[in-house]
Each structure stands twice: as C-alpha cells, then as structure tokens.
C-alpha cells in the first residue's frame, strides 16, 4: 500500500471515530445531594448535605402602626407608621452528651442579638432572661413588665415534674448606679399541676451607688397560668428592692435612684397583673391589665405608678399571616400628676 493511501485511510478513520464519539451522550456528574428533613427535631428542620447538622431558618416581617388619641402638642404627630423584622438560625445535631443546639437571632428594633449554645441542660451566651416571665399586650402593657436579655450561663435541672433553673448573668444596669462588682444570681422553678403551670424566679442583685453606698438587692417574680377549656387565665406579680428594672420597664432617667449614695437605702418596687386569652372564632382574643409602683431610694425626685389595660384580637388571615388590632390605655404618675394616653395599634405580621 502506498504511503499516501495509508495516510488517507488513517485520517478517514480518525474523523469517523470523532463523529461517532460526538453522537454519544455526554457523561454527567453525580447529582447534588438533596436536603432531607430532620423529624427528630420537628417540622422545618432540614439536614445540611455532607454533614450531620440540622438547620431551621425562620423569622418574621411586621407592619407596626399606632394612633394616640391624646396627643395635643402642636407639631407632634398622633400616629406612627413603621416596620420591623426578625431572623433566626437554629442549628441542631445529636452528640454523645445529647442534642447540641446553637441559635443566632437578630431583629431590626433591638440592640440585643440572640447568640447562644445549648447542650445537656446548659445554656451559654445571650438569650432571654429567665426572670423575663411577664406577659401583657403585644404593644401596650410594657410598663411594669420587665422584658430583658441575659448574657451569661444557665443550667436547667429536671426535678421530678419540675425544672430548676440556675443562672449566673451579667448584672442589669440599675438606675443612677454603677455596674455591680458581681453578676446577678438567679434561681427559678417551673412546674405544673393539672391545668395549672407555675413559674417563680428569684434574683440576687448588687446595687452600687455612683459615688458611695451599695446594697444587696433582690427581685422575686412569678406567674400562674390555668387552662380552662378555650380560655387561659394568667396571674402575675413581682416585688424588688434595689433591683427595680426586674419589675418595671419604665424609663426613670437620672431622677430615680436604686440605691442612695449616702447609705445602704434602696428603692422598692412591685407589680401585679392578669391576662385572659380566649379562642374566638378563627382568632384569639387577649384582655390584660397591669399595675406597677416604684419608690426611689433617698435622693430620688421620681417615683412611679403606672397602670395599663388593653384588649387585642389576633386574626389568622392566611397561613403565616396574622393581623392583630389592639386598643390599650396607659396612665402614669411620676410625681407631677397623672398622664393618660389612649392608643390604637395595628400589627400585620408574616411569619416564615
């Protein structure tokens, strides 16, 4: 065979082979692993491919709108129109010492961010304060209702049908007082008896005067919730000495003292309230009321009496969408006479 004939034949075979290979289906890579559910941790969790961590992402978006009927100052708007949001990441996995949980949460309306680790009954990081157990309205009722965050360590210990909570947390910043030289110590008890659920939390707090004086203060808060058919009745109360922020969220400013600068005298405060929640139609109605009082230590020029009452109705407009109108009134007296505001509030919230 001539050399030219051999070259032509070889070229033809190569071209034909290439054309045949081009007609064959291309080899595809392995499909990406799909996320699967995590029934052990509940609805909404999915397992991250390639690992053993189950993750749940959730949050809310709100439209917050308030109208105050008692605004009389010229140039002061009687209304507020606003929005807020919250976002949370809940990661869990099973370990040799039990379920391990870490949670990260953020909101647009608070400087406090959730960030804590939970395992075998221990919680460490920034979370809800164990003493923040009061429940009132969704907008009204904040006066006389401590709502706080704790940076510290908690241990929840089962004790029969009850749970005992031990906490060491960053001391709250008292009014007109410096930071405590030690953290706040907390002891809580949660239990149930038939339709009743009981929570009690005691706090040891050191109040230190800005120039001199200190006081070993305390706070004791508790509530009892009883379910009766479609209704739930909640009664709550609290008392404190030298630790008023555990009792009321009212902002006293620099005119209220939790501890005097010349002696160990401290402030006293108390609160009592009730809330009834009732299923009505496709929604849930809540009627609530609360009264708080606080008397400052020697040198204070401000005391407090605050009473709030209101009613709201949460309507499930669609899956994940809740519309809640609320009407509430707030009467306060800080030593210069009563001031009353009547308010109408509307929250539109989308949960995801």
Topology (elements, then pairings):
Layout: H1 3-23, E1 36-37, E2 46-47, E3 54-68, E4 79-95, E5 98-107, E6 114-119, E7 122-128, E8 149-159, E9 162-169, E10 177-178, E11 184-193, E12 196-209, E13 214-228, E14 231-241, E15 268-280, E16 283-295, E17 303-318, E18 321-333, E19 338-351
Antiparallel strand pairs: 1-2, 2-3, 3-4, 3-19, 4-5, 5-6, 6-7, 7-8, 8-9, 9-11, 10-12, 11-12, 12-13, 13-14, 14-15, 15-16, 16-17, 17-18, 18-19
How would you describe the overall organization of this protein?
- This protein is mostly beta strands.
- It is 6% helix and 57% strand.
- It contains 1 helix and 19 strands.
- It has one helix at 3-23; strands at 36-37, 46-47, 54-68, 79-95, 98-107, 114-119, 122-128, 149-159, 162-169, 177-178, 184-193, 196-209, 214-228, 231-241, 268-280, 283-295, 303-318, 321-333, 338-351.
- It has a 16-stranded antiparallel barrel.
- The relative contact order is 0.12.
- Residues 1-16 and 18-22 have low confidence and may be disordered.
Strand order of the largest sheet: 3-4-5-6-7-8-9-11-12-13-14-15-16-17-18-19
The total strand number stands at 19
Order of helices and strands: HEEEEEEEEEEEEEEEEEEE
For the termini, the CA-CA separation is 78 Å
Mean residue pLDDT: 86
Segments where pLDDT lies below 50 for 5+ residues?
1-16, 18-22
Helix content: under 10%
Q: Write down the overall geometry.
A: globular
Number of helices: 1
Class derived from helix and strand content: mainly beta
How much of the sequence lies in strands comes to over 45%
What is the radius of gyration? 30 Å
């Amino acid at each position: 065979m001539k050399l030219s004939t051999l070259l032509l034949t070889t070229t033809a075979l190569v071209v034909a082979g290439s054309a045949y290979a081009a007609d064959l289906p291309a080899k595809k890579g392995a499909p990406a692993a799909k996320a699967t559910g995590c029934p052990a941790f509940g609805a909404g969790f999915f397992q991250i491919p390639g690992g053993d961590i189950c993750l749940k992402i959730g949050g809310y978006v709100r439209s917050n709108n308030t109208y105050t009927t008692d605004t009389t100052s010229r140039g002061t708007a009687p209304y507020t129109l606003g929005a807020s949001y919250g976002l949370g990441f809940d990661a869990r996995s099973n370990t040799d010492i039990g379920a391990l949980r870490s949670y990260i949460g953020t909101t647009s309306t608070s400087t406090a961010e959730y960030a804590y680790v939970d395992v075998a009954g221990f919680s460490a990081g920034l979370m809800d304060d164990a003493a923040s157990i009061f429940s009132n309205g969704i907008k009204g009722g904040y006066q006389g209702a401590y709502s706080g965050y704790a940076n510290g360590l908690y241990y929840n210990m089962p004790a029969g049908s009850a749970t005992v909570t031990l906490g060491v947390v960053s001391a709250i910043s008292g009014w007109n007082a410096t930071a405590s030289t030690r953290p706040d110590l907390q002891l809580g008890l949660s239990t149930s008896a038939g339709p009743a659920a009981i929570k009690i939390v005691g706090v040891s707090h050191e109040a230190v005067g800005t120039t001199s004086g200190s006081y070993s203060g305390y706070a004791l808060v508790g509530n009892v919730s009883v379910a009766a058919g479609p209704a739930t009745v909640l009664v709550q109360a609290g008392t404190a000495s030298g630790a008023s922020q555990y009792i009321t969220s009212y902002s006293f400013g620099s005119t209220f003292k939790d501890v005097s600068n010349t002696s160990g005298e401290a402030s006293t405060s108390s609160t009592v309230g009730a809330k009834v929640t009732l299923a009505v139609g496709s929604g849930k109605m809540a009627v609530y009321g609360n009264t708080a009082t606080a008397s400052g230590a020697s040198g204070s020029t401000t005391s407090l009496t605050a009473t709030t009452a209101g009613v709201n109705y949460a309507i499930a407009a669609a899956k994940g969408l809740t519309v809640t109108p609320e009407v509430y009134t707030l009467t306060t007296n800080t030593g210069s006479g009563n001031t009353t505001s009547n308010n109408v509030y509307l929250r539109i919230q989308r949960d995801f």
